[in-house]
Amino acid sequence: MKKKEWIRLGLVIVVGILFVFVLLGVMSFTGKRENIDYTEEPPAPEELKFTNASDMTESEIRELVEEKRTNLKNFFHDAQYYNIGDVSANHTSEENDIYMVVNEEFLNELKTLLSSKAYDNYYQYMEEIEKRSDINISGSLYMAPRDLFDAIFVTSAIPSYDASEEYLILESATNERIKARENIKLCDDKGICSRDDVYEFDLVKEEDIWKVDEFLILID
What we know:
Elements: H1 3-35, E1 51-52, H2 58-78, E2 82-83, H3 84-87, E3 99-103, H4 104-113, H5 116-123, E4 127-129, E5 141-145, H6 150-154, E6 165-173, E7 177-187, E8 193-206, E9 209-214, E10 218-219
């Protein structure tokens, strides 16, 4: 074989070898790319769609729920609570940190705001007491654990503390029950929130009157 033919053959072999190396490199890089785990961002949660099977419009329902929520919030905020040592004939001021006292008017009004189930959750802890003869308070008096209503003021759908923003979210409605949620936030001027909780806030109709049935359950 002539010298030029040997040279040509050598060039072909070298080019072939280089092509094989390039091909192997490309296949190796492609394989690595296929093994990379690309984690996609989770899809945003679907917005809660309000289902209305009642005779009211959505705006009427929203107005009703807001009204009932405001009434209940104002009730607990403005209610009169007594120290047991100041009004009871059989207890002393040493028990002020253990018990509080409410009057009959308090319970009657609470009964108009809460469903029978929700009302019983509190009334079961009430015990009628004998009031002092020099106390000018009409009706019966009832003692209860001092912390019975504490959660209402902080961890509920009607907080009086630790809240800067409150948003009502309607969930569903019939002529007998309305299910809603209240988003409670505590945010600073920069929009950074140290609290972002959602609580159930449900109404139920009893004896043709809408009453609050649930307002303490935190939704995860």
